[in-house]
Amino acid sequence: MGSALHWHGYGPWTGSGQELRQAEGSLQRNPGSKPEDMHTFLASTMPPMQLGHFLLRTRATARERTWTDLDAALAWLAEHYRKYPPVHLPAEGYSDVGLDARMTHSRDGLAHGADAYWEYYIAGFSKVAYGVICCPHAHRSEIPCPLPPS
Question: Its domain of life (predicted)?
Answer without folding.
Answer: Bacteria
